[in-house]
């Protein structure tokens, strides 16, 4: 810091004032002075800083009762970029978005997460910079990165914690590794949490209590309460897959227990069940293909899986009282059979007060929930009051 900037008056509170503009509605300086109760000169200085940063842009003139109409200002989400990275066991989906999660460029490719953090994260960083270029923008506009990983993550440190399907990633410093290539804040969470966030922010922004359930090779959930992701004490909240199902018997689960939801109703479990009945299926995707082709046994098995998932979700409904349950993950693509089974049991096994306005719906974001959520997580981080103060020169 040189002598001049060190002693220049720095109007604090610019980050707080920016929060008033985040809804995108155009406001005049007088509007802001009225809402904050602050002096017009203070407001004018803060607006100037935000205008200079590009985060706020002129939005035309307000109507006037006479004299020169006052200028209005609004949040300009296109001013900056975030990189959203959704990593699965075998896929990577990346998007460069603006601060409102509008996708400007995206890319999807097959990867192997087992290649380890260095190889996978280097590739993600390189692809990210290429996408920034494709969007016709400069890497200087990139202000944060959001990453979703297919395993448990300590959100505060961004490190994966004993991830079962990510060999070589346990405790890896994902943040430091990416920051070596992209020197901006990096936020990391597990894939189901970012899918929940993506579905919520893009499709259900006005719903305060939402449960997102991913039904694929495994089963997990993301919990949105009071509009925010709830991770729990160790980031393990929403791990539905290993809840014991009543009457689950001795079906072995990869966690070492028996009778877990995942051992009975995941795509992997259904593929095994069908194979044992002489209908070859190796994966969740095979099960979906069979249902779509009209296979009656596969449809029956998927509906029964829905009922089993519904029995666990009925307990969640009693605990959390969500108003929307979104079912995502590739098994949800099997169509109405899964949803019908879930609805049947959730509505029967929950109290009327909890289900009065409850909707159980399929994911509307399709494959994009992860990148939309990673984008929202990264954008929300840099738009917080403290981050805005740091962003303003
Ligand atoms: Zn288990």
User: Per the principal axes of the C-alpha atoms, what is the gross shape?
Assistant: globular
List the strand order in the largest sheet.
6-5-4-7-10
Number of helices: 15
Radius of gyration: 24 Å
Percentage of residues in helical conformation: 40-55%
**Sheet bearing the most strands, described?**
5 strands, mixed
Arithmetic mean pLDDT = 92
Strand content is 15-25%
Provide the low-confidence segments as ranges. Answer: 1-11
Number of strands: 15
The ligands found in this model are: zinc ion
The succession of helices and strands, N to C, reads: HHEHHEEEEEHEEEHEHEEEHHHHEHHEHH
Judged by helices, strands and strand pairing, the structural class is alpha/beta
Distance separating the two termini: 11 Å
Account of the 3D structure:
It is built from 15 helices and 15 strands. The strands form four sheets. The protein has a five-stranded mixed beta sheet, sandwiched between helices. Strands 13-12-11-14-15 form a five-stranded mixed beta sheet, with helices on both faces. A three-stranded antiparallel beta sheet has the order 1-3-2. It is globular and about 80 Å long. Bound molecules: zinc ion. The site of zinc ion has 7 residues, from α8.
């Amino acid at each position: 810091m040189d002598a001049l900037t060190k002693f220049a008056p720095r109007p604090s509170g610019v980050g707080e004032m920016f929060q008033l503009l985040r809804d995108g509605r155009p406001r005049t300086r007088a509007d802001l002075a009225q809402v904050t109760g602050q002096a017009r000169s203070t407001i004018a200085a803060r607006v100037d800083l935000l205008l200079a940063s590009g985060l706020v842009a002129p939005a035309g003139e307000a109507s006037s009762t006479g004299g020169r109409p006052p200028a209005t200002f609004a949040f300009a989400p296109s001013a900056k970029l975030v990189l959203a990275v959704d990593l699965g066991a075998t896929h990577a989906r990346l998007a460069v978005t603006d601060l409102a999660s509008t996708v400007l460029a995206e890319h999807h490719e097959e990867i192997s997460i087992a290649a380890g953090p260095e190889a996978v994260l280097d590739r993600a960083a390189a692809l990210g910079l290429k996408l920034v270029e494709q969007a016709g923008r400069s890497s200087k506009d990139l202000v944060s990165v959001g990453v979703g990983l297919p395993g448990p993550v300590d959100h505060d440190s961004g490190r994966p914690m004993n991830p079962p399907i990510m060999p070589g990633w346990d405790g890896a410093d994902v943040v430091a590794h990416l920051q070596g290539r992209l020197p901006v804040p990096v936020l990391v969470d597990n894939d189901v949490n970012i899918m929940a966030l993506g579905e919520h922010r893009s499709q259900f922004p006005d719903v305060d209590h939402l449960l997102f359930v991913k039904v694929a090779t495994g089963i997990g959930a993301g919990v949105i309460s009071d509009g925010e992701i709830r991770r729990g004490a160790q980031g393990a909240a929403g791990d539905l897959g290993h809840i014991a199902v009543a009457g689950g018997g001795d079906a072995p689960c990869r966690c070492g227990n028996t009778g877990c939801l995942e051992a009975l109703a995941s795509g992997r479990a259904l593929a095994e069940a069908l194979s044992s009945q002489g209908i070859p299926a190796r994966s969740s995707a095979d099960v979906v293909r069979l249902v779509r082709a009209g296979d009656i046994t596969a449809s029956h098995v998927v509906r029964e899986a829905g009922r089993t998932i519904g029995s666990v979700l009925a307990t969640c409904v009693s605990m959390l009282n969500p108003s929307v349950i979104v079912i995502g993950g590739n098994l949800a693509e099997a169509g109405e059979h899964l949803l019908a089974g879930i609805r049947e049991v959730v509505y029967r096994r929950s109290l009327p007060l909890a289900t009065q306005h409850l909707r159980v719906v399929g994911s509307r974001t399709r494959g994009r929930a992860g990148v939309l959520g990673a984008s929202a997580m990264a954008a929300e981080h840099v738009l917080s009051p403290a981050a805005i103060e740091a962003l303003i020169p």
